[in-house]
Amino acid sequence: xxxxxxxxxxxxxxxxxxxxxxxxxxxxxxxxxxxxxxxxxxxxxxxxxxxxxxxxxxxxxxxxxxxxxxxxxxxxxxxxxxxxxxxxxxxxxxxxxxxxxxxxxxxxxxxxxxxxxxxxxxxxxxxxxxxxxxxxxxxxxxxxxxxxxxxxxxxxxxxxxxxxxxxxxxxxxxxxxxxxxxxxxxxxxxxxxxxxxxxxxxxxxxxxxxxxxxxxxxxxxxxxxxxxxxxxxxxxxxxxxxxxxxxxxxxxxxxxxxxxxxxxxxxxxxxxxxxxxxxxxxxxxxxxxxxxxxxxxxxxxxxxxxxxxxxxxxxxxxxxxxxxxxxxxxxxxxxxxxxxxxxxxxxxx
Length: 349
What we know:
Number of helices: 12
CATH superfamily of the domain at 102-203 and 270-321: 2-enoyl-CoA Hydratase, Chain A, domain 1
CATH topology of the domain at 102-203 and 270-321: 2-enoyl-CoA Hydratase, Chain A, domain 1
Helix content: 40-55%
CATH class of the domain at 102-203 and 270-321: Alpha Beta
CATH architecture of the domain at 102-203 and 270-321: Alpha-Beta Complex
Largest sheet: 9 strands, mixed
Shape: extended
Distance between the termini: 64 Å
């Protein structure tokens, strides 16, 4: 028993040392990260070049071994010559002739709180910094909607492109409903896959109430507010008819604002017919005027490559070391709390 006790004490000491070292390393890394000015990294990928390389790889795969060898040799020679010519031009100070117009591809996969708008803001700013009059933007959008203020800001980011007269296309492969459609309708053109879900132009809010359960167990809840409608419906307190009526008024007001925004962006829509909270599939949405064309984003990009250089722009948020360790658990807990708060206090698009 004494031997086991000494062994357990030894393991405890080792564990303490390991934890202490881990804490010190984490502290040092966090301090170093605070000194960094940039909060993320902008990544640029030439999709046209990637597609061209894929085409070449597939074509070469069907050649005989000796033909493949000859092709690779010629390809290497060609690349070397191109690099040599580019270096010579740079040395002479010659400017490169403008190439094809560009299509900048942005991806937005939205969650309930639309926190992805932070990356979207950076991506739009980057595009606006370099876009020429002949360039375009394509946003591959996927979102079932969420909080009003989050998706309102996301739509406003896309409006920055529209206000600069940069042609904007939104492609929906899966879903752009409610707040997602609020973003999509900003585009000059909306393209949806045949069975993508669109519409749901409505507002919803729900909240459980535990007041009667608490009363049965002799638990009192005190809620003090300054302002008649600082709180309308609550999770634990006793709700009133007056509070319910005010809550419904707020929902209707938000719905009217939503309808007005969509109608402003797409004036040809029969807004009263489509703003019922219903959703439609891509083919049906085209008949309703919610989208302009039915196609997948893949086919759309391939068609754009014929006349444009297609470039993907992505802003990757930098995560702290501690966030990487605790991110999953914290994100799950935060998601639960966020949903409870949203359902009780804020309407959802």
